[in-house]
Amino acid sequence: MNKPAILFIHGFPFDREMWRPQFEWLLDWHCVAPNLRGAGTAVAPLSPDAYSMHTYAQDLIGVLDQQRIERVVVCGLSMGGYITFELLRQVPNRLRALVLCNTKSAADTSDGKRGRDALAEKARARGTSAVAEELVPKLLARQTREEHPDIVREVSEMIERQPVAGVVGALHALRDRPDSTPLLGRIQVPVLVIAGEDDQITPQAGMQEMAHAIPNAEFVIIGAAGHLTPVEQPGAVNAAIETFLEKLV
Ligand code: MLT
């Protein structure tokens, strides 16, 4: 079989379950969707210093080594995209193609960094339900919020079940991540960039600009979706990913 394996990297503050509609659809492909450290059922180190884009990437390289996967298609959403950029720094030759969903290459602004610290403080003081309360309205498209209470509930519950240490650690990693913009022009593999029409966190205009800066990138906008395109519009996202993957074999 010459189909490459696909490594799905979830965003913040989620876990591998966010990719369920994709790995349950792509049954003919070898899909790997781990929980990052501090997410889902993975071990959550207590010190925020144990979390960085570098260590998340190191953990994922360990997963690939363990499964003897030499080259992989990486599909990352938002923070998963930031980690994909880190994999590009660390193991460029192991990447066969990339799917960048609802993400960006820039580092946090000073305001953004202050927001990370404030959210970490809130998580410590009031737990992950306060994090869900703050984030869910920003994560989902207006249409999803109005017409899909099931998705609102699913996303809220996913955030609420995350360990506080993992959420605080991820915020530390997000705050201190490097600018990956200089990498874009040097990406040599095929890339699919997926944006949400109503994404407030990584707006489609910025994502289109990012796609233009990558030599071999396709750009797709998913209608009636916010920041969580694979969860909000699984059918459209599955179709876009599958079409892209079929071209690789
Ligand atoms: C994510 O979905 O991973 C987050 O929105 C990333 C971020 O806050 O920068």
Characterize this entry briefly.
It is built from eleven helices and six strands. Helices cover 47% and strands 13% of the residues.
CATH topology: Rossmann fold
Main sheet summary? 6 strands, parallel
Structure annotation, total helices: 11
What structural class do you assign from the helix and strand content?
alpha/beta
Poorly predicted runs are: none
Rg value:
17 Å
Q: Based on CA inertia axes, which overall geometry fits?
A: globular
**Tally of structural domains:** 1
* The CATH class: Alpha Beta
Looking at this structure, what is the CATH superfamily?
Answer: Alpha/Beta hydrolase fold, catalytic domain
- Largest beta sheet: strand ordering: 2-1-3-4-5-6
Mean pLDDT, rounded to whole units? 98
In what range is the share of β-strand residues?
Answer: 5-15%
Q: Which architecture per CATH?
A: 3-Layer(aba) Sandwich
Give the H and E element order.
Answer: EHEHEHEHHHHHEHEHH
Q: Please provide the count of β strands.
A: 6
Distance between the termini: 9 Å
Share of helix, binned: 40-55%
The ligands bound in this entry are:
D-malate
Question: What do these coordinates show?
Answer:
With 249 residues, this protein is of the alpha/beta class. It has a single domain, classed as 3-Layer(aba) Sandwich (Rossmann fold). Helix content is 47%, strand content 13%. Strands 2-1-3-4-5-6 form a 6-stranded parallel beta sheet, with helices on both faces. The protein is globular, with a radius of gyration of 17 Å. It binds D-malate (MLT). D-malate (MLT) is lined by residues 11-12, 78-79, 174, 201, 227.
